[in-house]
Specification:
alpha+beta, 2 domains, Diaminopimelate Epimerase, Chain A, domain 1, 6 helices, 19% helix, 18 strands, 329 residues, eight-stranded mixed beta barrel
């Protein structure tokens, strides 16, 4: 029988962290928000990351040069699964979407391969707070996950169509304000969310780094999520650009999708309702992705936002991380 961890059911096994830190660290990469390899959004998950300094984690993330890399650490509180740190190629994030889905799939498979009983749910500790995870299975195998955003919807600064058009290399007439102005919104990580007038406008969009640098940091974000409605209710087509974070375009952005559907749900006149959403992203860059969302609204307020998707393993291996005398926090 597998040993029991003091951290409670579903937590990372304590014995995994009892060994002295090694320069060799195992990693697994997965493509997230897709059912097939080489689609979706790539993610690197570094397992047993205890003892790594922040600068070492940042160096590893820069080496992978994915939109994000995660580092799995022992949980700080009893009953939680793991403490997860998320890094882009340039900086650490307090929360992000596809890293939660991908890390949950990798960690669930790792724990079950070591003899742990199958789990239905995880709780990750992240900078923005606790992130509940529901595991998705097919034939008993974990194939995906659904996360719940760690923060309530926050609606912040609005931006002119001229500035958004400049950021997206589009004309102001391509930016729609029929449902809402271009708006900074967050459920854990802030994005400038803007609707465009057509699928063609979304296809023509491309980031203008100089405009991003001028417009976005002063309003508290460095990322823009552009979308247009599809033919069916709850269907969105989207793109996300973050050249200031070394991500020219992201194939699938769960945190941005969560913020966008929370905003749209908040604008509905219905007071008590649950909406289902289907968000397609990455199509125009050749990495099609599918994000499935749910929003819950009670007494006129959005009370919960969920994003689900599949993840498929791509690579696994061992990293050699040289010693670093910097701080571990």
């Amino acid at each position: 029988m597998p040993p029991t961890s003091r951290n409670g059911p579903g937590s990372v096994m304590e014995e995994d962290y009892s060994r002295p830190p090694s320069p060799l660290r195992r990693y697994v990469t997965v493509d997230v928000f897709t059912k097939r390899v080489f689609g979706g959004n790539p993610l690197a998950v570094v397992l047993e990351a205890q003892g790594l300094t922040a600068s070492q984690m940042q160096a590893v993330a820069a080496e992978f040069h994915y939109s994000e890399t995660t580092f799995v650490l022992p949980p700080r509180e009893i009953g939680h699964t793991a403490h997860v740190r998320i890094f882009t190629a340039r900086t650490e994030l307090s929360f992000a979407g596809h890293p939660n889905v991908g890390t949950a799939v990798v960690l669930a498979r790792e724990l079950e391969a070591k003899g742990r009983p199958p789990a239905d749910r995880f709780v990750f500790e992240e900078g923005a707070g606790l992130v509940p995870i529901r595991l998705l299975r097919d034939g008993g195998i974990v194939v995906g996950a659904e996360f719940t955003a760690p923060e309530p919807l926050s609606i912040r600064t609005s931006v002119s169509v001229d500035d958004v058009g400049a950021c997206l290399s589009l004309a102001p007439i391509d930016i729609s304000i029929a449902n809402h102005p271009p708006q900074v919104v967050s459920v854990g990580l802030p994005f400038l969310v803007s609707e465009v007038t057509s699928r063609d406008a979304l296809r023509r969009a491309k980031p203008n780094a100089l405009a991003h640098e001028r417009v976005l940091p002063p309003i508290g974000t460095e990322r823009i999520f552009a979308y247009v409605g599809g033919t069916d209710a709850g269907e969105l087509h989207a793109r996300m650009f973050a050249p200031l974070h070394a991500t020219l375009e992201d194939p699938a952005t769960g945190s941005a999708a969560a913020a966008a559907i929370a905003l749209l749900a908040s604008l509905s006149l219905e007071q008590e309702v649950e909406f289902a959403w289907r968000i397609e992203q990455g199509v125009d860059m050749g990495r099609p992705s599918l994000l499935l969302g749910r929003t819950e609204k009670r007494d006129g307020l959005v009370t919960a936002v969920h994003i689900a998707g599949h993840a498929v393993p791509v690579m696994h291996g061992v990293l050699h991380v040289p010693p670093d005398d910097g701080p571990t926090r």
